[in-house]
Design goal:
Order of helices and strands: HEHEHEHEEEHEEEHEEEHHHH
CATH superfamily of the largest domain: Ribosomal protein L10, N-terminal RNA-binding domain
Strand order of the largest sheet: 2-3-1-11-12
Strand content: 15-25%
Helix content: 40-55%
Number of domains: 3
Distance between the termini: 129 Å
Structural class: alpha+beta
Length: about 290
Amino acid sequence: MPGRTSVRPEKAERVRQLTRTIVEAPVTALIGIRGVPAAAIQGMRRGLRAQGNPIVVAPNSALRHALQAAVRERPALAPLLDHVTDQTALLVAKANPFALARQMDRTRSPTPARGGETAPGDIFVPSGTTSFKPGPIVGELQHAGFPAAIEKGKVVLKKDVTIVKAGQVISREVAGLLTRMDIKPLEVGLNLRALVDGDTFYPPAVLAIDLDEQREELLRAHRRALGLALEIAWTTPLTIEPLLVRAHRRALTLAIESGFPTKESLPLLFAKAIRQAKAVNAATGAAE
């Protein structure tokens, strides 16, 4: 038909392969790869593939067509279509979604700014002595907004400064000076955008949890529950031993206080009697 764009067979086959991969994967995720050097991506891909979690890099148009076709078989995949933006890769896996998110976080590392990037957070530069030698660098720092001065023959920053606020663009001038001060304000790595596990969609905010903090919270809850069970004498496999120890200790204390002789309390009763006798003798001697 006139005006109809033909699709090359190899592209159509590529989309079909992507569709099958997406449909058959237990876990399907979209990964942001913006700013990650090609060599770094290759290394990350090898590491993830070795764990059974291959990354597929394809044009966004191909990913979008493949997802649209896959949604017809698995409607739960539909939310992923909203996340095919910018530079995107497909991750198919068998891993737990939260463990996978943690694995993505471990691929991230600090990197210098080159200029033109948007600051993900406030870029803070502390006061103190720099490694610069006195010279034109002082004027460069001051022009870029750094509170620089020369003191005792050294270039110093006289006070703390937030040189770029979150959401602002990092200028080339500031980026160059930050790099020379070995300050790396950005991160490079794989960014987990969204994930579908079976029929469950996980947005990034749900997956971004601190597992160490969650583990510590569970430990705190366990300690509190154990303390409550001991306080109300609730018997469980975990509490029975400390409850028996506490009951024994209280029973022994009661036997000593009441002078009740048993195999365990008798030596303690004798010791108590001796202490009391010595106290009486001391008091009598003092009175005489």
